[in-house]
Amino acid sequence: MSTLKEYVQAEGNHIETASVDHDQARHELATPIKPQNQNIALQRAAFEGRKIDVRTALGAIALAFTYEACILSFALPSAILLTINADIGPSAQIVWGATAWSLAAAVLQTIAGRCSDIFGRRKFILAGNVFGLVELIVESRAQAVSAIIAGFTLTGVAAGAQLLAFACAGEIVPKKWRGQTLAAMNCAALPGSCFGSVIAYALVAHMNWRWAFYVGIMANSIALILSAVFYWPPGFLGLHPEGKTRWQQFKEIDFVGLFLFGGGLTVFLLGVSWGNNPYSWKSAQVLTPLVLGAICCLVALPLWEAYGPNTVAKLFPPQIFKNIRGFCMPLFISFASGMLLIGLPVFWPQEVQQLFTTVPQTVGWYSLAWGCPSTVGSALGGYSWSRFKHTRFQFTAMTALMAAFMATVSSVTPYTPARAVVLFAFSAAFVGATCLVGILELQFGAADGDIGIATGLMGTSRATGGAIAIALFGSIIRNKTAANLAPELAAAVIAAGLPKSQVEAFIAAFISGSPTALESIEGVTPGVLAAAATAAKYVFADAYKLLYLVTLSFGVPAIVAAALSRSCDDKLTSQVPVRLDAPHLLGQGKGEALVLHKLEEKPEA
Fold it and tell me: Where do the TM regions start and end (predicted)?
């Protein structure tokens, strides 16, 4: 029978038996520890001997619904923005809907993550579900595009809290099962992440666009009820057994860090979003927010976090950034994989329309080449990482395959749609796997008490990478086509028999997409139109080829970072950082919620 003495000496290693002789353990303990730590040790020893119990499973299900509610709240409405604009618009500002969601979620994830480490996670999960529910109700009744954009912004705020579900789920199960748990959460998100656009278009076809919001309302309602009943982690008092009050902790909040991070990142991402849309990258409207945001986030914030007063509960605990291999390397990979995870789904439907087909329903089915494989890949990656260990090797292999398959998509031509789907699907699968394993690496690279900030930084780095990628990839497509489209069209239509005097007018009409304008031009024949269409496809194919090759510029450094990262094999133990209380709706429950990872703190004699 293992004793408490052996448990403490092993610094939290798994005790194989579920029962401990408490009296014998107390007598054998060589170094006295606080009664509170002793009690936690006894409870933890017994708790870790169990398999996942019903309350843990129900809590994880509630968190999975929260994650799926977050996905549905964004995936469905964002897929039909043009339909919404046609009904209550039109407005050129409709594109800001998805951008506003991304900006809000990027900033709020880190802030919510750190605050949940300090004040507890339950209230943040509930607040995210409530906020998302209310805003979706408002959006569903919107009569103007401005209301839709405002709603997307506020649902992005809700997402910043809802996406903490990955941190919440990771800390309530044994560490060796954390990968499988997050994999299961991704499987639960299949409807939104895989079929979101298909569902949205089906709702528009058979009902109306407001049903895209109604589905989100139902999902958030279910998530709210399940979380309120089944997710009962330790609250503020459980996190602060030393007796610190909420007001004392509030006064210690890093308000300067919040201002520098939140304000700086928001300004920087706005500058990125304005680049070539609608301002030039060299304009003051773009350069000013970029420079100010970079100074705040990359200069002022690190200096404050490193040298600010220690009486402040730092937004970014300096100790986690000292773990270069275990935390900073995975954080960079999260940024790089986020560029692909968020950036490419924006351009894949455009590539399909410009190279293969313009039939809306067919384009929607092509979009599954990203959503389904990325979700399945993330689930398989998370399962494999925890199940088979050799974590650094797996992380490196997934990252390398992500970069390699993405580069191979550059071989696609207008007449190889099957190749495009297959290569893009494999790329998406390894992007999803790399992203999920990146979450696990970051969580294990931080202390158990900092899992919220670790998960939040993952979300922020990923969203920031995605925003930069959208701007970068968009500039590549625009610049490449602007330089080559007109000359290639001219050469093609002249060879097809169009009089040279009509070339300039034809190019303008062709780019505008107006059939009436094309019919009015003398000398336009079906052969000329076919030649122009073929030339345009090859111009766009060359532009996308450059886009996929550019991904190597951050894919290769990501491979190096993964190879240099720290293995997590020794951390895949039976330890359970947090125990949930029994399900209930109101009242104190059984009072069994416990912060088990507190035992890892060095006990005082």
Answer: 57-82, 94-112, 148-170, 182-205, 211-232, 253-274, 286-307, 327-348, 363-383, 395-415, 421-440, 452-477, 546-564
Segments forming the whole domain that contains residue 594: 4-49+575-600
DSSP labels for 399-457?
HHHHHHHHHHGGG--TT-HHHHHHHHHHHHHHHHHHHHHHHHHHHHHS-GGGHHHHHHH
The answer to whether residue 123 sits within a structural domain is no
**Domain-ending residue, one of 536, 560, 583:** 536
pLDDT higher than 80, residue 501: yes
Using an 8 Å Cβ cutoff, are 560 and 374 in contact? no
Cβ(296)–Cβ(263) below 8 Å: yes
Instruction: Output the DSSP codes for 77-105.
Output: HHHTHHHHHHHH---GGGGHHHHHHHHHH
Predicted confidence (pLDDT) at residue 382 exceeds the cutoff of 60: yes
Report pLDDT digits (tens) over 68-93.
Answer: 999 999 888 888 887 888 888 788 77
Q: With helix as H, strand as E and coil as C, how does 329-378 read?
A: HHHHHHHHHHHHHHHHHHHHHHHHHHHCCCCHHHHHHHCHHHHHHHHHHH
**Which pLDDT value is given to residue 591?**
75
Report the alpha-carbon distance of residue 202 to residue 200 in Å, rounded: 5
Judgement on whether residues 532 and 518 belong to the same structural domain of the protein? yes
Work out the mean pLDDT of the chain and round it to a whole number. 84
440 and 501 housed in the same domain: no
Whether 61 is covered by a domain: the verdict is no
What are 90-130's pLDDT values in tens digits? 887 777 787 788 888 888 999 999 999 888 899 999 999 99
Are both 447 and 378 inside the same structural domain? yes
Q: Are residues 432 and 475 in the same domain?
A: yes
Does any domain span residue 410? yes
In a shared domain, residues 388 and 492: no
Q: Looking at residues 333-338, what average pLDDT do you find? A: 93
Give residues with Cβ within 8 angstroms of 361, minimum separation 6: 201
H helix or E strand, kind and range, residue 579: strand 578-579
Q: Which residues of 466-486 are buried (b: 16+ CB within 10 A; e: fewer)?
A: bbbbbbbbbebbeebbeebbb
**Helices then strands (H, E): number in the chain?**
28, 2
Total number of domains in the chain: 3
* pLDDT higher than threshold 60 for residue 31: no
**Separation between Cα atoms, residue 148 and residue 88, nearest integer Å:** 10
The CA R_g of the chain, rounded to the nearest whole Å, is: 27
Domain check: are 412 and 560 in the same one?
yes
Give the whole-angstrom CA distance, residue 145 versus residue 441: 40
- Shared-domain flag, residues 544 and 408: yes
How many Å apart are CA 317 and CA 461, to the nearest integer?
16
pLDDT tens digits, one per residue of 39-77: 666 666 656 656 678 889 999 999 999 999 999 998 888
State the pLDDT at residue 225.
96
Judged on CB neighbours under 10 Å (0-12, 13-18, 19+), 87 is middle
